[in-house]
Known about the structure:
It is found in: Cytoplasm; Nucleus. With 341 residues, the protein is mainly alpha-helical.
Amino acid sequence: RGRPAAMEAREPLRDVRGALRAVLARLREGEPGEGREPFELPRFWDALGQTFQVTSQEATKLSLAFSRPPLPSAEDCRKLSEDVQNAILAVATVYYWLPKGQGTTLRKMVRDATTEVVEGMIQLTDTILNAPEESLSQEQLISTGGVWEACEQVSNLPRDNQAAVVSALAACLGVVKDAVEEMEHALVEGQDPYGDIMEDEELGFRGNRDTYWSEADRQLLSSCMGLMKASKACLKKVLAAVKAHGKADSPEQIAQLDDLADIANEISPSVDELALSMYPPVNPLAVRLNAAKLASVLKKVLEIAKASHVCPPSEEGWVQFLAGAVDHNMNKVKNFTQGQL
């Protein structure tokens, strides 16, 4: 007999879940307007921090209300639901204040953090709506913790576009470092990149051309390694330059940083594509195409960096040097694959 009443009490929570899903859809698809004028970053961060904190508190209240009998009355549930909805609407509203002019890299990071909070709250309402009986489920504990964690993220967000681009470049560098190490490791493993996974018990060796590198392959691959190492060096240098000289004071500086982040984002997928084509059986033409793609991304990174405020004359030496290294390795790749064309 108590069951329908319990369902009844949770009804407002269903409506809230629907409303939150609508907010989430808007956040995911939408580029909102240009924000409120005049915009002040410090005020924005204060407001965002506050809305995240309130949301965290509302999650706690909601979760506690449904953690033990008696379940909240329909009236209490309506009040709780309203508070949750208002908290999430406030989070979204403050995010929408942030104009694109503050930097698309920064904006994306703030949007991701905001989206996570909304997703966390949807997850929590789901858990409560699906909870069978009047007790605190493991899922509900986990979902509540998920909202708390998402809300705490606000304190780790970069505070302006320079910091956002530093963080984006550092992430790219980490991925490229791993890819370079993995490839170096495979090449050093000796004649047989698949040795660890394909031992032929009976023969004790494999004479299959498809699973090892010939001498010619290795020559070609050493130039590819050169390009991969140049990618790592490019990201390292650009990251250092953005840390040292990057500013987010003018629209022009902010836009230059975004351009750098956007092109740097293409390095890691290009490195991965090249690395994949380096495994046997090597198709020299595929290797050449992937090497050319990576080389052109790197040249573009260097060009954009050089033309921007992060490269005063003191930084031009390494730009020149790395552009030379990219050309040198790409020319070697071309020479090794000439006969294949």
